Amino acid sequence: MRKLFARLSAQLFTLCAGLLLGLAAQAAQTTATQVEIKTSQGTVVAELYGDKAPRTVENFLKYSKDGFYNGTIFHRVINGFMIQGGGFVPGMKEKKTRAPIRNEAQRAMSAGLRNEAGTLAMARTQDPHSAAAQFFINLADNRNLDYPSFDGWGYAVFGKVVSGMDVIQKIAQVPTGNAGMHQNVPLTPVVIESITVLSAKESK
Q1: What is the domain range of residue 111?
Q2: What are 117-155's pLDDT values in tens digits?
Q3: What's this model's pTM, rounded to 2 decimal places?
Q4: CA distance 160 to 45
C-alpha cells in the first residue's frame, strides 16, 4: 500500500510539475495588439506591447479607434533618425488632442523596450509628461532616447514595425524643407490615411 501511495504521489508530482511548466511557457508569451497603418506611401503593420507600456498603448489605441489619425501626416522626417507624425494635417494645421499622458519610458525600458530601429515611441515636448497623440518611428538605434536620456525621463517605446519597414524607409527618403517654424517637413505630404486595429497576436 505504501509503495502504491508513493508511486501515485510521484505521478501526481510529475503531472503538477508539467502543468506548471506549461503555464510558465504561456506566461513567457504576451499577446500584442497589431495595427495596420495605411499611408500614401504604402502600408505598415506594427504590434503594440500593452503589457509593457499599458497607459501608452491604451492612449494610442483610443486615438486610432476614434479615427483621429485619419488624414494626419508625417510632418517631421529626418533620414537616419526617425519619422514623426500623428498631430498635423496637410498645411501644418495642428489637431486638438485629449489631455497628455504620463511618461512610461522607465517602465517600458525595464520591460525590455528600447528605441531601436523600427520601434514606435511617443513624441513630446521638453515636458516629460506632454505626450498626447504624436508618435515617431525610429530609423536607427537611438539609445540616447531611452530612459533616463538627457532629461531624466526618456521617450516611451510602445510598439514595433513587424511588416512594411521598406515603406518606412521610403518615407525617410522623401525631400523635406521648412514650413513656417517647422523644419524637416516633407515637401509633398506623407498622409496617414488610416490606422486600423487588427486582431491580437502571440508574441514572445
Answers
A1: 31-203
A2: 999 999 999 999 999 999 999 999 999 999 999 999 999
A3: 0.84
A4: 9
